Amino acid sequence: MKKNKADPKGVLTGTHFLDGDFSLAEGALAAGCRFFGGYPITPSTETAERFSERIPRVGGVFIQMEDELGTMAVLIGASWAGKKAMSVTSGPGFSLMMENLGLACMLETPLVLANVQRGGPSTGLPTLTGQQDMMQARWGSHGDYEIIAISPDSPQECFDFTIEAFNLSEKYRVPVLVMTDECVGHMHEKVVIPPAEEIEVSERKLYKGPKDQYLPFKPDKDGIPPMVKAGDGYQFHVTGLTHDERGYPVINAECQDWCVRHLVDKIKNNADDIIQIEEDQTDSAEVVVVSYGISSRVAVRAVNKARKEGLKVGNLRLITVWPFPEKRIRKLAKDVKAFVFPEINYGQVVHELERCAGGQCKVVGVPHMGGGVHNPDDIYKVIKEAAK
Amino acid sequence: MNKEKPRHPVEQFLRMDRMPHIWCPGCGIGTVVTSFTEALRKGEMDLDKVCVVSGIGCTGRVAGYIKLDSFHTTHGRAVPFATGLKLGNPELNVVVFSGDGDIVGIGGNHFIHAARRNMDLTIIVVNNFNYAMTGGQVAATTPIEANASTSPYGNFEYPFSIPYLAEASGATYVARWTALHIRRITKSIQEAMAKPGFSVVEVITPCVTLYGRRNRLGDGLNILKYYYDQSEIQHNADPRNINISYQGKLIVGKFVDKEKPTFLDAMNQHLNKVLGDDYQKYGKIREDQQ
Amino acid sequence: MTEIRFSGYGGQGIIRCAMIAGKAFSVVEGKHTTMTQSFGPEARGGACSSQLVASDERVLYPYITKPEVLVCMSQEAYEKYEPNLRENGTLIIDKDLVKPNSQKRKIYSVPATRFAEELGNRIIANLVMMGFFTAITQFVSPESMKKALPGLVPDRYLDLNYKAFDKGYEYGLKVLEEEKKS
């Protein structure tokens, strides 16, 4: 994978007091994103505002689209034209984007989409937080595919993880979702943006062979097909239909088998490289609290309180929610009494945790319907109960 | 004997390894594709920079047969996809080739907004008055009284007139022909592709298998001839007055051809004016727009 | 750890108050703050509040629970948020805009909006309030507050904002002195 230093033009080096939404835009600019398409939606709009203000001085395009259906389409087009492209949205817009998120997966198109989650369903709680789109992030578009979703818990991580999202997206030719939420999106904190030479950005693997032999979906040894840019003379074709290595539609069971396996396996087989988790005192733990995004900050308060009372509590934070760290969970499940999983929803990723725990230990969700974060005491009480 | 089989002049623009195509005998789409390839042959353009984007439907299959960088996308989203290509690399000459259902039905919102922005795209709309791929359902373009599989007693919804919709939304080039106006289609596509701005070329084509059969318009060649005979060339006709009625007259011609800065022209001009030297110009600035 | 709430009505620069204080504490003084805001769908009017959690270590729980400082710049905000102020908490109000309905706690008041009008623009009432707040709470030094201003107020109004801040700060020192005397 080719890694470069970030282009200093997009990097706002310094210490800032920024909200999560602004930090998403700064992360994108630092990562080399020069194309942003979007449609205004609370609580994500500030990212678009920031990008539209900054991009004319950096060099690139901002376009406010007519809706989120067109937004995903415009990103895929821009990506095939060679640009690193991004958008940001929230629940209702995320639903509309599912259509062409599927196309992006099918065409193996790198792009980054951030979801500043709010409470749902439907219009729900536009100005208040939620983590209710987590299963939609995994399964929202129709058909089988794998996707990468990472979840920042602070404005600083909105910056850092957006760069990471672009790097993963370019490396694996897959859309990457940055699943944050209203609380993080609207909270202001100190954000340190390092000098450009300290930021590593991945560049797209481009095909180098003879022009008439380019096959858009023929994987290299690493499982990832190299890309070309539109306009470079390859006369390639891509389609959202089930296709072969040439990108030609082939409507039969054999090709469907190859196509779907390729889309899924290129992520599954590289799960160890993709997945990032943070663990604290899990080795000796009787109870492990699993969490992601803003909930992991709140969970630490509960864990600290439980530890003060002598309970052996570990902390496992999912930086990458999808793909799920199945291997690690399976191993831990043998050693602990229980997993406790606070999420700002009525139980979503906890089902995946349950599946991976495979009945070897208790799995207790701590639901919070949204509109705010957990009261740490609510998590603490569940930890205490689970440790019995 | 080392004589190569003589090649049809169109072949160089087609993915011959994908022939035969899926279109019905007598379908008008092939004629429009031929006119398009003829425009590519005649036009002095860098073919590496020409991209074709299609949505879904019978005409949506065009992208798959054209031997250029070509994209078969989702239903209705060809225009925003093409917008992304164009804005991602302003040097590309991007053509959207799709059907009436795709462009002004499910994709209607994208169509009017791309026209409003004067996005530099060429839109070739093959209008066969129905959703053919799915079996001949009523469309946003079906004339009143015409029969379709979901309007079995005849259509009573007011249809869109594509040139009127395009012009009212801001398109700078609008033409309409029937599929038998082969040379005129070619010329319009050439003009549309050469013109910076949102250009729309509508081609009325027979759908022999569905719309034609349900409305007893006859077989392929007869429908082709029928549309041609019903047509009347009126260049610069007011797009408000060229609605298509069932079995009525078809006003064709070049209706709109005007100058207006494109989205990228306007973006560069405006931001340059407001931000001065701070602004990083994007893409090549055309001479007449400097 | 300190929890602070700034409140008033939309359009008074309430969010900006917390941003300035938050930036001063974290970016200028190198510690940690998390600033959050609550607002209704209306862009102007209505009760508006911004909150700050400040700590020497990383802030985990982002929201305030029971603030020890409450700044009120409207009657509605006072009535909504005063009951949640910690028992020995500090209540700071705009003298002309808030009429306290209880005298059971110590109240620091400043005619922030009137001072701002005297300086030529009521829009800087929030900066008068920030000066007063800095003097009363000593949350951060006045120098740190001023260092936080560039980027958060328009450059062309920086001087006016400094003036407003000083006005509030000096008034605050006076109030404290008088308090000592009595």
Tell me the Rg of chain C in angstroms. 15 Å
Parts with pLDDT < 50 across at least 5 consecutive residues of chain C? none
The fold-level CATH name of chain C is Pyruvate-ferredoxin Oxidoreductase, domain 3
CATH superfamily of chain C: Pyruvate-ferredoxin oxidoreductase, PFOR, domain III
The named CATH superfamily of the largest domain in chain B: Thiamin diphosphate (ThDP)-binding fold, Pyr/PP domains
> Within the CATH hierarchy, at the fold level, what is the topology of the largest domain in chain B?
Rossmann fold
Instruction: Please write the CATH class name of the largest domain in chain B.
Output: Alpha Beta
Strand order of the largest sheet of chain C: 2-3-1-4-5-6
Which chain pair shows the most residues in contact? A-B, 48 and 44 residues
The span between the termini of chain B is 58 Å
Q: Would you kindly provide a written description of the structure presented here, covering whatever features stand out?
A:
The complex is a heterotrimer of chains A (388), B (290) and C (182). Chain A is α/β, with parallel strands linked by helices and 388 residues long. Chain A folds into two domains: 3-200, Rossmann fold (3-Layer(aba) Sandwich); 279-387, Rossmann fold. Chain A is 39% helix and 23% strand. Chain A contains 13 helices and 18 strands. Chain A has helices at 20-31, 45-58, 68-80, 91-106, 134-139, 155-172, 182-186, 253-268, 271-274, 294-308, 326-335, 349-357, 376-387; strands at 3-5, 14-19, 35-38, 61-64, 85-89, 111-119, 125-129, 148-150, 175-181, 188-193, 200-202, 237-239, 277-280, 287-292, 313-318, 320-322, 338-343, 362-367. In chain A, strand 17 (338-343), helix 12 and strand 18 (362-367) form a beta-alpha-beta unit. In chain A, helix 1 packs parallel to helix 2, helix 1 (20-31) packs parallel to helix 6 and helix 10 crosses helix 13. The termini of chain A are far apart. The model of chain A has no long low-confidence stretch (mean pLDDT 97). By secondary structure, chain B is of the alpha/beta class. Chain B folds into two domains: 11-259, 3-Layer(aba) Sandwich (Rossmann fold), CATH 3.40.50.970; 262-290, no CATH class. Chain B has helices at residues 29-42, 62-65, 78-88, 100-106, 108-116, 162-169, 182-194, 208-214, 220-230, 263-275; strands at 50-54, 69-72, 93-99, 122-127, 130-131, 137-138, 173-178, 199-204, 231-233, 250-257. Chain B has an eight-stranded mixed sheet, sandwiched between helices. A two-stranded antiparallel sheet of chain B has the order 5-6. Chain C has a six-stranded mixed sheet, sandwiched between helices. In chain C, strand 2 and strand 3 form a beta hairpin. In chain C, helix 1 (14-28) crosses helix 4, helix 1 packs across helix 5 and helix 3 (112-118) packs across helix 4 (125-137). The longest helix of chain C is centred in the C-terminal third of the chain and has 24 residues, at 158-181. Chain C is globular and about 40 Å long. The relative contact order of chain C is 0.17. The A-C interface holds A 15-17, 126-127, 183, 186-190, 294, 297-298, 300-301, 372-373, 376 and C 18-19, 22-23, 26-27, 32-37, 39-41, 59-63, 148.
